Amino acid sequence: MKQANLQQNGVKSRAYRLVQPHEVVETALEHELREWEVAVEPTLGSICHADLRYFSGQRRPEALKKKLPMALIHEGIGTIVESGTSDREIGQRVVVVPNIQGYLLNGTAQEECCPSCQDTRNSQGSNYCQKGRFLGSGFDGIAQSRLVVPSASAIPVPDEVPDEIAVLTELSSVSYQALHHVKDLLPTARVVVFGDGPVGYLAAAMLHHVYGVSEDRLTVFGAVPEKLGQFDFATRHLVQEYDFSAGGLYDVALECTGGRFSESAINQAIDVLKPGGHLILMGVTEERVPINTRDVLEKGLTLRGSSRSSIEDFLPVLEAMKDPRCQDTLRKLLPSENTVIRSAEDFAEAMEYAENNRGWKKVLLDFEW
């Protein structure tokens, strides 16, 4: 296995940093490369709504002041160009895990990290590490020519998975992680997804292709017929035409709308859940959302929020992506062509386009360094 000699002066990187809303500048960075880390050259990235909230200034002013300047993008793949460890090969194609726990950052044992990581009874505890960092959220993300991460956070992409599918791994893994909490119910559960955007689509795709939830047990509620029509592996209903007074029909509900539609989606989900049901919140909103707590109490519902994933969530997703049927499902989210990024100006233009054209398909960034 090839292993590079570590650069004495560090790894030089060109980062496209957001310095204030709508303003991106190229910045020279230098990263230390330690013996448990690798340097990755990003090749393909995907714009997330979280990136757009930073770029457009929709985050709270105190959050922007604290986190900027910062290179955006946390969904991406790349090629290993330098390595401090023997477990990753130079030239290897990898997907980047943006949620990096403190013990990985410091090259220490998990037991020496924070209370969340130390709680071995909770297999998902490290997802909420109190000493970790999340790329593109307070720390420089993937929009840079050299990204240094722990080798464990650079997961090899199987040969059967093409780049344009692999770049969807992070967002897909967030759905996988959210559903992991109810995995024992899914072999027989009736499940409903609220939201016909990319988050809802990938959540439904993971339910179908990873957890094996069939069309007769998987329902999707949406507001746009053209978007809803893409969910051809599920039963579909338009929210504006459905009678939510019919009562509890579902065991598990996922709210994937976010923004101003969160309130209606959450409360509609409460309406259709059976007593003892589970509501998983995945949509992000900057505002407080009023919910029908009376029915939550009367039905004994369990609410859980989920917006991140860890290394262990990426592996089953990549395995499922080997299946051509799963790839066909995911390809519906892909644009007709990728956006080539050669400069900070190109990056800013791509972000402006994504902000002004919030369509159903993802915007993919083809980095040429």
Automatic annotation (TrEMBL):
Domain Alcohol dehydrogenase-like N-terminal intervals: 37-159
For the keyword Membrane, the answer is no
Which Gene Ontology molecular-function terms are recorded?
A: metal ion binding; oxidoreductase activity
Keywords for this protein: Metal-binding, Oxidoreductase, Zinc
User: What Pfam families does the annotation carry?
Assistant: ADH_N (PF08240), ADH_zinc_N (PF00107)
Q: Which residues form the Alcohol dehydrogenase-like C-terminal domain?
A: 237-321
* Gene3D superfamilies linked: Medium-chain alcohol dehydrogenases, catalytic domain, NAD(P)-binding Rossmann-like Domain
Question: Does the keyword field hold DNA-binding?
Answer: no
Required co-factor(s) are:
Zn(2+)
What domain of life is recorded for the organism?
Bacteria
What family is this protein classified in?
Belongs to the zinc-containing alcohol dehydrogenase family.
From the Swiss-Prot or TrEMBL record, give the protein name.
Alcohol dehydrogenase catalytic domain-containing protein
Q: Which organism is it from?
A: Paenibacillus aurantius
